[in-house]
Structure formats: C-alpha cells, structure tokens
Design a protein that fits this description.
By secondary structure, this protein is of the alpha/beta class. The protein folds into three domains: 1-40, no CATH class; 43-200 and 252-454, Alkaline Phosphatase, subunit A, CATH 3.40.720; 202-249, no CATH class. It has helices at 3-17, 30-40, 72-75, 129-138, 152-160, 192-199, 208-221, 225-228, 231-248, 264-271, 284-296, 322-342, 425-435; strands spanning 44-50, 94-95, 101-102, 116-123, 168-171, 187-189, 302-308, 355-360, 380-387, 394-396, 408-409, 421-422. The chain has an eight-stranded mixed β-sheet with strand order 6-5-7-1-8-9-4-10. β2 (94-95) and β3 (101-102) form a beta hairpin. The two termini are 40 Å apart.
Length: 455
C-alpha cells in the first residue's frame, strides 16, 4: 500500500471515528459516539457458518418432549426426540446454569451459556439455501440468487481493519465486497493449506536484488500522473503491495499447526488436529484454530469459517446426522471461546472480551417430521452470539407456538412484543455495525439495530 493511499484511508477511518459526516444514531451525543468508536477499534469478529440449515429443535430452540404426545394438527410441531438415534446421548432438552432452555445437541456450548445470547423467531423469507445464506451474510435479500451489497464482514473489516495484514479472511464461507475499499475484500481460501500457499513466497527464478528492483519500478510507476488518475491502476498497486506485505511478514509459520513450535501441541489438542497428515488440516477444527490464530496474532480483524456441514437432512439421515454434526460445530465454538478467554489482551481483559462470535445457518429445518423421517426447509431461523460486548445468558425473541414461525420482538429489550418487529438478519448486522462504531446505515439495510444484544 503506498503512502498516499494509506494516508487517505487513515483519514477516512479517523473521520468516521470522529463522527465526521455521520448522522447521530439514537440521539447519542458526538462525544459519546467518539468514545464508542475509539473503543470499537479493539473489536474483532468471527463468523461461524453451520452449512445446510440446522434443526434448532435439537439445539437453539427446543420444545417440551411431551409435545410428541399431542395433536400435531394444532401445534404443527413435532420435536421428534424419540425418533433420534441417541448414540449415547440423553435425547431431551435441558436447562443450562444460566436458565437457557436448549436442545440435546447444543454440546459444550452449554458450559458457556453465560456468554451466549440466543436469538429466536427470526424470519429469513426464503426456502432456498443460497438465498438464505447470502441474506445472513449481507443483511439483504438477494436478487434471485445473486447477493446484493457487501458482507457484514467486509463492512467491519473496511471500517476497522485498515492496518491489519489480512483484514478479512474467509475459510469456506462466501464473502462479498461492493464498492468498499479493496483491503476490505476477503482473502477466500478453502482450507489451512490453501491459506499457507497464499501467504508464503513462491519459487522465483529472479534474485533478491532483481525482485526488489521490479517492486521499486512498479511502485514508482503507480505514482505517475497517468497512474494516479486510474482507479484500476491504484487498485492493482494496492493489491500488489498488500500481497508483498503479507509475504514479507512470514505469516505462514503461524498456521503450521503440525509443527513443534511452542503452543502448537496444546492447540492441536484443543481443536482435534492430528500431528501429521494433510487431511486433518482441511477439517473444521483446523479452520477454528485458524480463526483464533489470525485474530490473536494480529493478522486479521474479521474471520469467517464453516464450522459444521451436511445439515441438509430431508431424509432419515436427520435421525443420525443433524444433531451430531451440529454438536461438533457447537463444540468448536466452545473451544474457541475457551481459547480466546485464556489469552490475555494486555489491559486486564481477555481476547474474548474483544472478539464477537456469530453463529448462523441459512434457515432452520421445518417443525414437522416429513414422510421420509427427515425435516424440510423453514422460513424461520435462530442464531447465537457470544463474546465482545454481547450480554450473555439470555434469549432474545421467540418462535411461535404454532409451526415455530417468526414472531415480533422489541429491538431494545429483546422481549416478545406485539408492537415490536420481526427480527431479520439485517437487524443483527446493523447492531454489529453500530457496536463497531458505524453509527449510520451505510450498508442501506433500512432497519433499526437489535440493540438488545448488548443488554
């Protein structure tokens, strides 16, 4: 990144932090907005995607098992716990120590219930995987299947990550950048080995002197009048310089999880990574380790990872797969919470105090068991958030008693309210952006933020 563009970006960021050109949000004074924005510079984010549409009856939004003995024509909800292959589990919902009523496959996340907020009764307004996934990622309904707008991850990285080496890292999760600065665009990889290949120097037939001379020539050329008048040229130079910075810092060693470097054995144990073999580096556990490493080692501001998959269970594989696959994802989130909480931030807080984790899926599965012993798609959804400024140990909203559909909720209190709004992904995205110091609505989401997330 050349000095001119770096200065321009820093000026834009400082202007945002100081409230320049930003409309007041909720009547907050400029000094309060400035204080919030300065605090937000210590914010980091991990988006955790559960791919395939989770069954929230098994985790985030359970029902009383006694409903299985009821009249489904009235409730249009069959919890189906008695149909599951228990695999050693007690197939019943339970109440956590913080009083959260959760499903039998919530896994180790239950041990961190005091840090978790569950959002229920959301509306996704689609039954299509691609549309639901992109709706949550961007906070906007797609145009057909085409995503509209930038990912929330890109907005956050663009606002806070100007000085990070890889502001926005995405591992097996879609990401979009529409008209934001180039540095906000996600580095998208499919696995840890892909990431390592992307950030380590490749073989070159040139000597070190020749490479430096070429770099200097390209940098000088980008400052000529013709180059300065070309946005494409400046974009290319930004990309070239950013890539060079990444390679020069020799970051690949941070993600060599099978090495004997200090701390790697403990990390492998925490995330279930084998000490050898390339296959284990393509697992969800390796992706979780990557997210925490990238955040805590100063590499990234925002990381998106897929933590669970194969949840599209329309057939009798629902009885054996959806719950355990969800649980594996929740266990990884719990491991990340424990990892972040164990790492001091340096000011008496921990990395978890500065890192918000967002868990989502494209929508949830239907409330009724179908003729194939599976569950189909639902317009409704749930999600969860933990860490950062999230006020944990609570449930926001509720799904309907009939068919578990969306309901209305107060965005300020999180309590079900006939005069409230149906929660949608954009309410959550607006809240995350406001918490990051983005006080207006530059993403044009056209909703108020779900501020109940912060207590």
């Amino acid at each position: 990144m050349n000095d001119c563009n770096h200065s321009r970006r820093r000026f834009l960021v400082n202007s945002l932090l100081a409230g320049t050109g930003i409309a007041a949000f909720g009547g907050v004074s400029p000094l309060v907005r400035l204080a919030r924005a300065q605090a937000a510079t210590d914010h980091y984010y991990i988006f955790c995607y559960f791919s395939g549409a989770w069954d929230v009856l098994l985790s985030l939004d359970p029902r009383d098992p006694a409903m299985e003995n009821g009249d489904y024509s009235e409730t249009l909800t069959n919890p189906g716990y008695s149909l599951l292959d228990d695999d050693g589990h007690s197939i019943d919902p339970f109440v956590t120590s913080s009083g959260l009523f959760v499903g039998p496959y919530i896994g180790n996340l239950a041990a961190h219930d005091d840090k978790v907020v569950i959002v229920r009764g959301m509306s996704m307004e689609t039954l299509t995987h691609e549309a639901g996934r992109r709706r949550f990622i961007t906070g906007k309904p797609p145009s057909g299947l085409q995503a509209r707008g930038s990912s929330t991850a890109s907005w956050l990285a663009g606002h806070l990550g100007v000085d990070d080496v890889i502001p926005n890292l995405s591992v097996r999760v879609e990401s979009y950048n529409e008209d934001l600065d180039n540095y906000a665009t996600a580095l998208k990889v499919s696995s840890v080995p892909d990431l390592v290949r992307a950030i380590q120097p490749g073989a070159s037939s040139l000597g070190l002197l020749e490479e430096r001379q070429i770099d200097e020539l390209l940098a000088r050329a980008s400052l000529c009048p013709k180059a300065l008048s070309s946005s494409l040229w400046q974009l290319s130079e930004d990309s070239r310089a950013s890539a060079a910075t990444v390679i020069e810092q020799e970051l690949a060693a941070l993600f060599d999880f099978q090495s004997d470097a200090p701390g790697m054995a403990e990390l492998r144990l925490r995330y279930g990574i084998a000490g050898s073999g390339s296959a284990t580096l393509a697992t969800a556990g390796a992706r979780a380790a990557t997210a925490v490493t990238a955040i805590t080692q100063g590499v990234s501001r925002v990381v998106s990872i897929q933590v669970a998959g194969n949840l599209d269970t329309h057939y009798d594989n629902w009885t054996t797969d959806n719950g355990p696959f969800q649980e594996a994802g929740f266990d990884l989130v719990a491991a990340m919470i424990e990892d972040l909480e164990s790492r001091p931030y340096g000011d008496g807080t921990t990395w978890l105090d500065h890192t918000t984790i967002i868990g989502f899926s494209e929508f949830c599965r239907g409330a009724m068991v179908n003729a194939n012993m599976g569950r189909d798609h639902s317009l409704a959804n749930s999600c969860f958030l933990a860490g950062g400024n999230i006020a944990g140990g609570r449930v926001i909203g509720a799904s309907a008693d009939v068919a578990m559909g969306p309901t209305t909720t107060s965005l300020l209190t999180g309590v079900s309210d006939p005069a409230g709004e149906v929660i949608k992904p954009e309410h959550i995205m607006r809240a995350l952006m406001a918490d990051a110091g983005i006080e207006d609505d530059p993403a044009d989401l056209r909703v108020d933020p779900l501020m109940a997330l912060f207590g």
